[in-house]
Structure formats: structure tokens, C-alpha cells
């Protein structure tokens, strides 16, 4: 499959470039030049595959020029052998709503689904070349832990993870900072998540620096992550066996919900994708009324969604504008100046596929409480936002993506239902283990120097 950048369709790229580089040199995101669309008969053939077989079928459409189908299949088996659920994900119910539990991987968040896969994809790539790669990634909490677990101990790979100092939950932090492998480096930045993400972007755009260390990224714009996430939309659709289905997706960087949009573009009969946000509601304002102007980031109970610049939204802008990279590049200039308003025709196109809602802090706590009392289930605060959005839109016949295990966010749970949700047995050791991380100022040069001193 060939890929282009959302900002310039004159150059084509292969899967290796797309996967290793993450972001195109022109600042755009990679998208496939054309997409496979399954017809009804083809969907029927996928229906009875198990999770790993289905992953292999779908991902192979995108990666065949990089890895053979047989090798992909064994890579996927290896990746998901670390999950506590044999079928990787699990479907449960809260009242009328179905929950797609995506948190049965090693670090208890949905990000493991894609990260375990791409960790092994790096290993596969490095086995074929004599390179050494340094991964640098910013995290609002869950990405870092998932990336570290996927990369730790792998040869010829280092990983540097920037998290906002004191702004993630202590369980989130400990899952990252108690890892002992020598190729893992945790950095706490005195700033918020957007500051961390900015530093990483500046490091990437300093081409001399980024080339000199063979810098690579695993953030949610990486196409390899998106396609791994597309799989569970197909899987849950087949499992439920309904004609069409809607999904409510707790959203930050627009990666997970974009994977659903991709599934729809590939022919999966999805009705609506509900973009569920916390008080950092730029995407709700954008989708409901065209207002894509970012505000200050607020800290909330669902920190993995405390984001005001949803990187993957650029891919939607591209598709909504008829895959026109010139228009997309123009729009992204406006986004950069924080002056982009979505015009009415584009908004109508977006609203054919998407709905949105946002839940404030009190609503989030109330949803956790209500579902604990009525349905005897403890929702993590991100999932609660997804459930709340579906409730507010009276869309209760839908699948909510359950993106994290509640024990990762003990303060929110405790605050809401006065109950302490325990870590699974096999992860309890992190609570009392020594932590290892370096606190640095919100300063790109300082971070660069630290990284240089370690590679
Ligand atoms: C990352 C994350 C999200 C948001 O996913 P995006 O792909 O950034 O929209 C939601 N919930 C949890 C628990 C997360 O870790």
C-alpha cells in the first residue's frame, strides 16, 4: 500500500517510512493513498475469525510491503500473548449499554492493544537492519506506560518518556518509573501535557538533532497504532451481530475514534461515532458547532484526555475535504494560528458520521456512582465520560469503548464511591518499588542534552 501526507500528495511513502517516521517532513500526517472497502460478502468472511486472525487480515492490508502475512500473524500472536484475556478484548454490559473492555493488557489501558503490536514491529524492523533507534514520546499518563512495557529490554532501542510532573496519577507514574530495564528513561517535565508534546515536536523538527539520534515516535499519530485499533471496531461489531452499531469513544488526541472512522470508511456498518470529551471540550465544540479554537488545558479526573490539540483531527479534516492535501495544508495553517472555524458544508459532512458530548467533573463522578449503585460496576473516569456522553445523547443502544481499568485512577474512584479499587495481583509490586525518573524544566534544549547524554 502507498501512503501520502495529508499536506502534500505529490510524494508517496511505503509502510516502513510511515511506521518509523510517524510524521511526514512537511508536518502532515500519513494516510493511505487509497483504501480497501469491504463488501457485505467479504465482511461475512471476516465474521468468525478470532481476534488475532482478524488483526492479521486487517493490518496486512496496510503493511504487506513491509512484513509477510505469515510473519505478521506470528508477530500478532506474540503481541497479544501478554494480555489477560485470550481474545484480547471483552464485551460486557452496563444496563443497556455494551462496554468494549480494552484494558486487559500489561498496563491496563487500551493503548496496550496498539503498543504491544508496534513494540514487536520495531523489533522485527531492527532485526533486518543494523540501526539503533531512540524513541521519544510525550504522555498524558497511559501512552508512556504502554510504550515502556512494549519497548523495555528490546535490543537497539531506547525509549525516553516525557510526562507532566505531578499531573498524572501515582499509579500511572509508577507503572512507568519502576521499570528497571536499562533502555528506559523517564523524564518529568515541569509543565503540562501540551508542553511535553511541544518539546517532542521541537525535537523532531530539529532535523539535525533527530537524525543524529535516529529519533522515532510512538504517539497516537503513528499510522501503525491507528490500524491496530481499527481491529476492535470490526471485532465487536461481529460479536454483537447487529446490522449497524454506534460507538461512544472517550477522546483526547482523536486517535481511537479516528480508528473507528477508518473502520467505517472500510465498509463496517457503523451508524454514529460519538466523540466523548471531558471539560477539555475542543472536539465537542468543533463537532457540534464548528468551533475549533483551543483554550487552556484543564486538569481533570480523566487526565489521558486533558488535551486541547487533537493531532489526529487533521486526518479527518483531510477526508472531509475530499482528500485534498492543498486545502488541508491551508486549514492547518489556520489551526496553528488558533483561528480555524469549520465551515457549514464541512460540518454537515462531519455530522453524518460523528456526534459529540462533553461531561464535566461532577457529571463524571455522578456517572461512576450511579453505575456502581445501579449496575454494580466500577467505571474508570475516562470510560465514565464515554458512558455519560451516550446517556446525554440518549444513544444507549451503543458500544462504549472502555479505555482503562478503574484501579489506575484510585483518587477519582475513591472520591466518587468511597471505595478503593485494587490493582490486579500481578501489578501490585509497582506500589512499593523504587521509582526512577529525572525532573527537567519545560525547556527543549535541556531535554535534548539529557537525551544526548544517554544514547
Ligand atoms: C489515551 C486515552 C484516551 C484517549 O484516546 P485518544 O486516542 O487520544 O483519543 C482515552 N482514555 C484513556 C484511558 C486513554 O489512555
Notes on the structure:
This protein has helices spanning about 15-20, 40-45, 50-65, 70-80, 110-130, 140-150, 170-175, 195-205, 205-210, 225-240, 255-265, 280-290, 315-320, 325-335, 345-355, 360-375, 380-390, 410-415, 445-455; strands at about 5, 10-15, 30, 90-95, 95-100, 135-140, 155-165, 185-190, 215, 245-250, 270-275, 290, 340, 355-360, 400, 440. It is α/β, with parallel strands linked by helices. The strands form four sheets. It has a six-stranded mixed beta sheet, with helices on both faces. Strands 9-6-7-8-16 form a five-stranded parallel beta sheet, with helices on both faces. Strands 2-1-3 form a three-stranded antiparallel beta sheet. Helix 11 links the parallel strand 10 (about 245-250) and strand 11. The structure holds pyridoxal-5'-phosphate.
Question: How many E strands?
Answer: 16
* Strand proportion: 15-25%
Q: Which descriptor suits the 3D outline? A: globular
Mean pLDDT: 95
Strand numbers in spatial order across the main sheet: 4-5-15-10-11-14
Ligand names: pyridoxal-5'-phosphate
Identify low-pLDDT runs: none
Given helix and strand content, the structural type is alpha/beta
Calculate Rg over CA atoms.
20 Å
- The oligomerization state is single chain
Helix percentage range? 40-55%
Give me the number of helical elements: 19
Q: How far apart, in Å, are the first and last alpha carbons?
A: 33 Å
Largest sheet: 6 strands, mixed
